[in-house]
Amino acid sequence: MKRRQYLIGALSLAVAFVVFVIPFIFVFLNAAKTAAESATLDFSWPREWRFWQNLVEVVQARDYMLLLAYFNSTVITVGAIALMVVSGAMVGYLLQRRRTPWNRIIYGFVLAGLIIPPAVVPTIWLLQQIGLFKSITGMIFIQCAYGLGFTVLLYRAFIATIPRDLDEAAIIDGAKPWQVFFKVILPLLKPVTVTVIVVQSITIFNDFTHPLYYLPGAENVTVQLTLYNFQSQFVSQMNLLFMNILLVTVPPLIVFVFFNRQIVAGMTSGAVKG
């Protein structure tokens, strides 16, 4: 039995190495080559190490577009996550604690947000009507809306594991409903909150489709759109294109490596009681 587990573990590590590590090494090596060397697209050590020079050139391209993209993506991610955490936790708390006839209807809308694919044209029309099309604020609301269903389900499952006695004790002590939530319940939601922050921040930061549709304009570029914008510019300089891929990939990768345990803990903590 132990030998079988060892073989399965070794096989899993080998598959993960081939699928994830080898492509990353390939991108890293080609990002450090000259334009002529990287054009061959082979898995070889650079003859001339130009990692720093390529990095500077990519950052300075198109009047430092990559830095503007990092700023826009960071603002969108932080704003959407903040809205998602507060609103998702509040909706999950109400769905779990207050049993009303409206709960099933609201829960149905939450599930619909996960199942029904978003419609691009009506969303663009709505953003134009309220003056949020081509704006960072509108993109923040879009990202929050798309991730809210998953967030509510996580919070609802986790809140089910918190005893109702805490709510009742706080009410007996004179706490108002909003005080019960923000001072008693919300601090206990740290594990699932970390999970939501990490998972959704990676999703939003790596999003390509939604900024392409809802956030056009060179001043609104995000990190994933830089790959699309730089593709024609760097078509004869694959080393710079690989460097851009590396710069876009590394931040989410670092976040995932450092917080992967918190992700698993937060997603399984509410699995015992629904």
TrEMBL record:
In terms of Gene3D superfamilies, this protein maps to: MetI-like (1.10.3720.10)
Family, according to the entry, reads as follows:
Belongs to the binding-protein-dependent transport system permease family.
Q: Where is the ABC transmembrane type-1 domain?
A: 70-259
Where does the protein end up?
Cell inner membrane; Cell membrane
The gene is ugpE
- Return the protein name: sn-glycerol-3-phosphate transport system permease protein UgpE
State the InterPro entries in the record: MetI-like, MetI-like_sf
Subunit info here reads: The complex is composed of two ATP-binding proteins (UgpC), two transmembrane proteins (UgpA and UgpE) and a solute-binding protein (UgpB).
Return the PROSITE patterns for the record: ABC_TM1
**Keywords on record:** Cell inner membrane, Cell membrane, Membrane, Transmembrane, Transmembrane helix, Transport
